[in-house]
Amino acid sequence: MRKLMICLTLLAGGLAGSASASDDRAIFITGSTTLIPIVSNAANVFMDRYPTWRDYNPEWPERPVLIELSGGGSGQGVRAVLDGAAHAGMVSRELRDAELERLGEHEAVLVGIDAVAIAAHRDNPLHGHYTNFSTAELARIFSGEVGRYSALGNGLPDREIVLLVRDASAGSAVMIQNRILGDTPVSSRALQMNSQGQLVRTLTDNTSSFAYISLGLVNAREDLKAFAIDGVEASDANVVNGSYDLSRPMYVVTQATDNRYLRAFLDFLLDDEGQAIVVDQGYIPVRAAD
């Protein structure tokens, strides 16, 4: 039942009911959908182990441990913290200067490292012709300048490239805009996905689709394959050594630094068991980047 409560909150796509950071009955965390698999799995383990806070610490109240999650993107995570609608926000990118200014005193807890991969279904026709794209080639595709596979080379079918992108507030969208497209807007023909879950489902269901997506999700699936960029393979090793440029931090951001319940859960995320969950979900643990 405790696990079901997390799932229901996720499906709602927002914070549950009257939930707010002033409500100490539960820990409310919202934001990046990239982080949801990590945080939800960690929350389930934590709540199973500690049914009440007294089970965690004999001096704490005999109050049920309840951790509720919702998605909405990295920008939503920061806004919810600023508005007092959540105890913490999940953010899968660097915090922007304006966000840092508004947050003031805060804590950004690095729980893992992710990378954005350029990927397609293993049956996508590109995989028979391409293993690598240059940044310039990717800019032409994501801007819509190239819209059909046949324009990318002889032997490729005259079929539309079904371009999948995230909503503009997503950490991955910000990274692609800054590092691939620059000042050029994304194609108006691109299909906008509201979550990583929707993105991976669409990418796996349509062999004509082409997308940027979390490397962790690609690593976790056999039906997706990533392309190298500028000759550098999208791999954990290349992310850690810095040669693969499309990497991003995964933070849990909070202003509630005195919330002992939240601190207990964050400590769990950073200990050996929590970091093992990061690895199990296909991401890079914090220690690997040290």
Radius of gyration: 20 Å
State the separation between the terminal residues, measured CA to CA: 38 Å
Low-pLDDT parts are 1-19
Biggest sheet, open or closed, and with what strands and sense? 10 strands, mixed
Mean pLDDT rating:
89
Number of helices: 12
The sequence of SSEs as H and E is HEHHEHEHEEHEHEHEHEHEHH
Percent strand equals 15-25%
Structural class: alpha/beta
Helix content: 25-40%
Number of strands: 10
Net shape:
elongated
In brief, what are we looking at here?
The chain is an alpha/beta fold and 290 residues long.
Can you put this structure into words, describing what you see?
- This protein has 290 residues and is α/β, with parallel strands linked by helices.
- Helix content is 37%, strand content 20%.
- The protein contains 12 helices and 10 strands.
- Strands 1, 2, 3, 4, 5, 6, 7, 8, 9 and 10 form a 10-stranded mixed β-sheet that branches.
- Helix 11 crosses helix 12.
- The N terminus is likely disordered.
Secondary-structure topology with pairs:
Blueprint: H1 2-12, E1 27-31, H2 36-49, H3 53-56, E2 67-70, H4 74-83, E3 88-91, H5 97-103, E4 107-121, E5 132-133, H6 135-142, E6 162-166, H7 171-181, E7 191-193, H8 196-205, E8 209-214, H9 215-219, E9 224-229, H10 236-241, E10 247-254, H11 260-270, H12 272-280
Parallel strand pairs: 1-2, 1-3, 5-9, 6-7, 6-8
Antiparallel strand pairs: 3-10, 4-8, 4-9, 4-10
